[in-house]
Design a protein that fits this description.
203 residues, alpha+beta, Glutathione S-transferase Yfyf (Class Pi), Chain A, domain 2, 4 strands
Length: 203
């Protein structure tokens, strides 16, 4: 078993943090997204969507997509639970995970892919206006998270979950996108200080 990743990309980091929280060791194989390795015939055979990370099993089986990979390890190693402990809890975690992934991380990624000249060969065509249009969406999502965290220690409730992992990675990914936290988000800053201090955050 191994995980193929590009370490500088945000989604592989989500998996690394998830595994670190569970104390699971899996070998990682590095490929260069910026050099076009994801478009190679060998990688495309493993994942026709040409995205990292992917989990490759010794028998040749493959699981793609970040949350699917995390769900596999959650099923294999239930503790600590990072995707909920009962039906309601699992649905709540899934709700917040999707909100953070689709409502924050995706918009940050659009800023990066459409405004960074170094990404031009990967995002064809680059549409600068679309990159700019996503900036206020990022701010809107951060304000919504701050409101949520006024009443909750972590994003999905009182326990640390995959929703917190996704949000941490998203906010850290704002730096290379030249985005900053807005003013007036004390709850988000309190949460960020706590989750970024966890040992897994450096995975």
């Amino acid at each position: 078993m191994r995980i193929i990743e590009t370490r500088q990309a945000p989604n592989p980091r989500r998996v690394r943090i998830f595994l670190a929280e569970k104390s699971i060791a899996v070998p990682f194989e590095e490929i260069d997204l910026m050099a076009g390795d994801l478009k190679s015939a060998a990688f495309t055979k493993l994942n026709p969507w040409q995205r990292v990370p992917i989990l490759v099993f010794d028998d040749g089986g493959v699981i793609c997509e970040t949350v699917a990979i995390c769900r596999y390890f959650e099923a294999m190693h239930a503790e600590p639970a990072l995707m909920g402990v009962d039906a309601f809890d699992q649905a709540t975690v899934e709700m917040w995970q999707r909100r953070v992934e689709l409502g924050l991380l995706t918009h940050i990624a659009h800023v990066m892919r459409h405004l960074n000249p170094k990404m031009a060969h990967l995002e064809v065509p680059q549409v600068a206006a679309w990159g700019e249009a996503n900036k206020p969406k990022v701010t809107e999502a951060l304000l919504a998270l701050d409101a949520r965290l006024a009443d909750s220690r972590f994003i999905a409730g009182e326990a640390y979950t995959i929703a917190d992992i996704t949000a941490l990675v998203a906010i850290d990914f704002m730096r290379p996108c030249k985005l900053a936290l807005p003013d007036g988000v004390p709850n988000l800053r309190r949460w960020y200080a706590e989750v970024s201090a966890r040992p897994s955050a450096s995975a």
